[in-house]
Every structure is written in structure tokens, then in C-alpha cells.
Amino acid sequence: MSRMSGYDYVIIGKGLVGAAAARYLSKEAKVAIIGPDEPTDFHQSQIFASHYDQARVQRIIGKDIHWTRLNQDAINAYAALEKESGIRFHENMGCLYVNPHGVDAYLKAAPNQATQIGTNPVFYSSEKEINQQFPFLTFPEGTVGMLEEGPAGLINPRKLLQAQLTVAKSNGVTTINEVAVSLKKAGGVFTIVTNKGTTIHAGQVIIATGSYQNFSGLLEQPVAMRSKTESVILIEWDTKDPNTSKIPSILYELVHPEIEAIYVLPPVQYPDGKTYIKIGANVSEDEWFESKEEIAKWFQSGPSTTLSQKLFKGLKYILPSLPENSNYQSKPCVVSYTKHGRPYIGEYCIEGIIIAGGCNGYSAMCSDSIGKLGAFFAQNRSFPEPYEAAAFKIEYPD
Ligand SMILES: Cc1cc2nc3c(=O)[nH]c(=O)nc-3n(C[C@H](O)[C@H](O)[C@H](O)COP(=O)(O)OP(=O)(O)OC[C@H]3O[C@@H](n4cnc5c(N)ncnc54)[C@H](O)[C@@H]3O)c2cc1C
After folding, report:
1. What are the E-state strand segments in 54-198?
2. CB-hemisphere CA count at 13 Å for 367?
3. Residue to substitute in 44, 209, 287 for testing ligand 1 pocket (most ligand atoms within 8 angstroms of CB)
4. From the CB of 16, is ligand 1 less than 6 Å away?
5. 196 CA distance to ligand 1 centroid (A)?
6. What superfamily in CATH does domain 91-153+226-338 come from?
7. What is d(CA 263, CA 230) in angstroms, rounded to the nearest whole number?
8. How do strand 56-58 and strand 153-155 relate by DSSP bridges?
9. 232 lines ligand 1 (CB under 6 A)
10. Mutation test residue for ligand 1: of 11, 293, 363, the one with most atoms within 8 Å of CB
């Protein structure tokens, strides 16, 4: 049982946001980051995460200008981070947003946002126009859409995490592969104790525990955040398929009682050496969690066969050439939603505790910016222009 002290900042949560915050703070301060690595055996672990994967959609224009700024700033940081870490995690194959129900609020606002940020997306007013660009994809009549070309595309969350931690460690950050189980403040100093009995003292604490904000037992007063099951399937892909390099990331805004908000990630190689195309969505089987034990049970059981078949059918509809007898495997995951629909970045109701997180399903693509803002706020109790503090204000249950 070791004692570690004298840290200016300790970050709890060694995920995408926490690792980014550690990297930015490590340039000027003494920093430690606490959090378990990705488990090799889910049945041997009690705490999980939302980044155990090889691909996450990267777009530029977000739901509103606050998200868009986060996305654009994150993308602008990638080249330097890839160079400094020597790890490539970003691919530029573009991101196709489609809505079969016609022009929605996102597509209505996109042209103005594009002008504001100086990008030039392609807009499609029919499924025929989309099909001309992507002849291997099908969408129902009445579908409209928008294509953001590179740097929109995908990020590899495992590699992004590795890149953040590689640079953070080279700047002297201490990593503690344990789980924080208690957080106390006395005499202006925070004491964190882990599941292995390690005691760490810090001037300030950043909590970046993703979907575990209310389940870690570290916050007496819960924040207004709910976490739910998320499911994807990975379908084995034949890289000899001529469309392999032409498939963009896809956001398909289908609204249906059984399945909605579908996302498709292009073929990517996984650690087992195989290449997989991936589909995920919100489904009628999704459940909201009340405890970290429920999250563990979900990661250890995973999606049902029926759910997986539903996702496969969804992709087969969009990509008819997908062989009916394709091999696929399902993967469980967890996402969290905040009250205002954006990440929380700010000071918790205890001075010196900063919260950075609340993914709303879209934070991998801007995790570098959320971590950067969390770090900036911890140092300055303010946001750098043009960010607005109110947009990321921490909210509490009514
Ligand atoms: C299936 C799926 C698909 C997604 N697709 C996309 C997408 O296409 N594009 C996109 O941008 N986003 C996507 N997301 C969302 C994205 O993955 C998350 O927003 C992102 O991972 C959040 O980063 P985070 O650092 O807040 O949380 P995480 O990456 O989950 O990291 C939190 C870390 O805190 C740790 N932790 C928890 N409690 C403790 C504790 N007590 N002590 C120490 N450590 C603790 C956890 O183990 C974890 O490592 C998807 C999410 C899922 C689940």
C-alpha cells in the first residue's frame, strides 16, 4: 500500500478525456492519472469504459456550434499529437450523414455552421444523388444527406488513448492502473484511495470517469447524467471487396420503434488481425443503468442474438452487397447523457473538483478538446475564447 503526494492535479479516469487532460496539464504541472487498463478478460473486471474499440466516427459539424468547435479543435490537434507520439489514430475517409425522413434540424443548421467554420460539405437532396456518389449504398426514397470529406472520417479510440498517454508519460505523468474508491478533502488537500489501498494526495482533482460519474462512489451529490447500454456488431469483411476504401463513416438518422440513430464504421483491422465493418445503433432493447454492478453484468453478458440480428439486418439494408452468411460478433458498450446534451466541463459543488465528461454518444471525436478545456478550466477557472462556460455547465438532478 503506497502513499503518493505532492501532485498539483490528479485525474480520475484513464479514458479518452482523462488522458487528454493529463497531457495538457503535464506541460506545466505535476500530474497523476488513475484508472484501469482495458481488461483482457471482462469476467475478471468490475469497471469498464466506452473506448474499447478500433473505430469511432469523426465528423466536424456537430449538433450545434459548441460541439462543432470541440470537433474542429480536436481535429486540428491530431497531426501534432500523431507526430509527437509516433502513433497514427486518425483516418480521413469522410463522414456521410443521411436522414430518410427529410431535412432535419441538423441539416438545416449545417450550411450556416459550415460557413462559420470555413468548411465545404456536399449536400444531397435525394437518395439518387447519394447513390450516384456511393453506388454500393441504398437508402429509402425521400432520403437527404450531407458528406463531410476529410478530415472527417474516423479515429481509433484505443490508439488515440495510447497516443495521449505516451506523450503524457514522456512529460512525467504518473499513471496508476487502479480504481479510485474514495475521495476526501481536508485542509485544502484531496486524498484519493484506490481499490489496491494506494493513497494519493492532490491540490485539485479532475473526474473524467465517463459513464461512471454517478456510479464511482466519489461524488456525494450526483450530477444530472444517465448511462445506458450500447451495442454494436463487427462483421468480418473481405478486404478484396472493391468498395473497401470507398466506404465513409455513416450516420443514418433513422427513427423507428425498434432501431434508431444508426452509425456505420468502414472496414478497419482489429487486434485479431481480421478486418471488420461495424454497425451500432440505439435499439428498443437498450436499458438504463442504476449501478456500476449493472454495467459490469452487461459487459460480461453482452447483446442478445436477436439484437445482433437486428443490427445485421440494418447494415444489410444499407449495404445490400454484404454476404448474408457473413460472420459477425457483438460487443457491449456504455454511453451517458447529460441534461443539456453536451459534456459537463466545470467545477463540481466542492471547490477543487473539476468534472470533464458526459459523452452523449459523440465525445470520442472531440475528447482531446474536452480534456483540453477541462485542463484549462482547472488552471484558470475560465474558458478560452470562443468557448462559453454556460454551454458546458454541470447540472444536478431536480
Ligand atoms: C458503442 C459505442 C459507439 C460510440 N461511437 C462513437 C462515435 O462513433 N463517435 C464518437 O465521437 N463517440 C462515440 N462513442 C462515445 C465515445 O466512445 C465516448 O464518448 C468516449 O469514450 C468518452 O470518453 P471518456 O473519457 O469520457 O470515457 P471513457 O473513455 O469511458 O473513460 C472513462 C474511464 O474512467 C474509468 N473509470 C471509471 N470509474 C473509475 C474510478 N472510480 N477510478 C478510476 N477510473 C475509473 C473507466 O474505466 C474508463 O477507462 C461511442 C460509444 C459507444 C459505447
Report:
1. 56-58, 90-91, 95-99, 122-124, 144-148, 153-155, 174-176, 180-186, 189-194
2. 33
3. 209
4. yes
5. 23
6. D-Amino Acid Oxidase, subunit A, domain 2 (3.30.9.10)
7. 12
8. antiparallel
9. yes
10. 363
DSSP 252: E
* pLDDT tens track for 151-177: 999 999 999 999 999 999 999 999 999
Torsional class of 248: left (φ above 0), alpha (ψ -120 to 50), beta (otherwise): beta
> Please, where in the chain does CATH 3.50.50.60 lie?
3-53+158-222+339-392
Cross-strand partners of 12: 34, 207
pLDDT in tens, 13-27: 999 999 999 999 999
Number of the ligand 1 atom closest to the C-alpha atom of 367? 23
CATH homologous superfamily of 3-53+158-222+339-392 equals FAD/NAD(P)-binding domain (3.50.50.60)
CB of 266 sitting under 6 A from ligand 1:
no
Distance in angstroms (rounded) separating the CA atoms of residues 240 and 218: 50
